[in-house]
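Input structure tokens:
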């Protein structure tokens, strides 16, 4: 029955709600006494409503029991049926010399994640990734940083990682590129995504002394083995009426509480992270949708923060995306312009900032100094007062250092004046997608 999940949840849920509404309407129109006297047609309408509601409840119970999930997770899975689906780009809209790869940098999986926390295993994850058209996926089971003082816990997460790698080697991924990484989770300070590096080695070499005094070396070591670090859901704090359901502060505290003295490893990650998760599918589709009704509100907020951080730290930072899926849903959320179809090329693209999130239309963004060749997101252009911009895939909004400065109709070019001697981060929003910046007149 898995094929009918989670769409079946939505159908049964709607049947249930419709049935209850019909029943209530019948009661209001005829009253209880009218129904008892079997006044037509209301008593029949009421009976139909009751039957529909009961069928809906029965269907929900069967589907939830069959998947073995809690009601809360089933509700999230049903809501996610309606989550944003990205468009596709025509080959001519992809900057020349690159492949557009669609993926997810933040996907939980059980095991190693706890079964009560994540309801999806390896085989259903691979099946979902195939059906949603993903080219790459990074598995990010939680590792709990405050528990890393325990050598036994470190061994436990190392064993879990090795078991996942072993299982993965026995599966045909159907060409999907998979990187088993982790989400280093510290609910007091923030969550860090780890992808593409030698996790086994970085963890194997952790010592008691390192955990006690300089855990930043664990992250530095992972980075040195070709790994990238990303700051997950950096502004995610409980807000609005639904705060009681989203009550955990998962923000990156150096952003939200800069006055606090962060532990050494948080300070290290803050300055070496390759990317910031500007798009978190769960935050957009659950929290933002419920609190503001605007699924892109956190996206814009995090992008503005990222622009500020790039200018303050004077280094490139890429926009990244993650589904943060703990249940039966996945989407392509991060799009990269890679030089070939390999994990190394995906990693390189993120490292160099050739990324966009939510929709690939923003990855068609290219710019150049007048008369020179076109460059995609992530490029550095210097010594110029003017920038020619194209976004072939869609109408676009051009932003400079977070401010919208021009609208660009599809198929046209725009020439933007940029101040010489001042760093301009130029990004675009197009068809629900957001690009990483092109760096103009920046020293880095
Ligand atoms: Zn997280
Ligand atoms: Zn997560």
């Amino acid at each position: 029955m898995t094929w009918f999940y989670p769409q079946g949840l939505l159908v049964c849920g709607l049947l249930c709600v419709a049935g209850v509404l019909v029943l209530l309407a019948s009661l209001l129109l005829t009253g209880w006494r009218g129904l008892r006297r079997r006044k037509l047609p209301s008593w029949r309408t009421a009976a139909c409503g009751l039957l529909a509601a009961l069928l809906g409840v029965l269907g929900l119970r069967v589907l939830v029991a069959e998947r073995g999930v809690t009601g809360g997770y089933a509700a999230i899975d049903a809501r996610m049926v309606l989550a944003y689906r990205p468009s596709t780009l025509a080959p001519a809209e992809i900057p020349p010399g690159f492949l557009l790869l669609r993926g997810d940098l933040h996907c939980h999986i059980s095991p190693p994640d706890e079964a009560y926390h994540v309801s999806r295993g390896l085989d259903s994850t691979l099946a979902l990734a195939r059906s949603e058209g993903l080219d790459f996926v990074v598995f990010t089971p939680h590792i709990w940083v405050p528990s890393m003082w325990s050598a036994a816990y470190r061994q436990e997460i190392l064993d879990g990682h090795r078991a996942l790698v072993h299982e993965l080697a026995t599966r045909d991924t159907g060409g999907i590129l998979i990187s088993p990484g982790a989400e280093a989770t510290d609910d007091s300070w923030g969550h860090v995504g780890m992808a593409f590096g030698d996790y086994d080695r970085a963890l194997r070499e952790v010592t008691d002394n390192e955990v006690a005094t300089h855990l930043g070396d664990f992250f530095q070591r992972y980075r040195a083995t070709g790994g990238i670090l990303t700051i997950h859901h950096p502004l995610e704090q409980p807000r609005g009426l639904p705060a009681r359901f989203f009550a955990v502060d998962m923000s990156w505290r150096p952003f939200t509480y800069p006055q606090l003295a962060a532990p050494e490893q948080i300070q290290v990650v803050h300055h070496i992270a390759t990317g910031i998760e500007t798009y978190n599918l769960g935050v957009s589709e659950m929290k933002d949708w419920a609190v503001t009704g605007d699924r892109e509100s956190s996206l814009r907020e995090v992008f503005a923060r990222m622009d500020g951080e790039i200018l303050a730290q004077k280094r490139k930072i890429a926009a990244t995306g993650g589904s943060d899926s703990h249940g039966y849903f996945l989407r392509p959320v991060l799009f990269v312009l890679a030089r070939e179809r390999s994990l190394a090329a995906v990693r390189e693209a993120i490292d160099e900032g050739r990324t966009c999130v939510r929709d690939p239309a923003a990855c068609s963004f290219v710019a150049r100094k007048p008369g020179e060749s076109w460059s995609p997101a992530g490029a550095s252009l210097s010594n110029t007062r003017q920038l020619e911009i194209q976004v072939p895939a869609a109408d676009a909004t051009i932003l400079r250092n977070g401010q919208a400065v021009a609208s660009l109709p599809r198929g046209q070019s725009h020439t933007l004046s940029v101040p010489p001697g001042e760093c301009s981060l130029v990004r675009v929003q197009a068809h629900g997608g957001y690009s990483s910046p092109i760096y103009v007149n920046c020293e880095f």
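The longest strand covers residues 99-107. The chain has three domains: 4-74, 99-353, 361-440.
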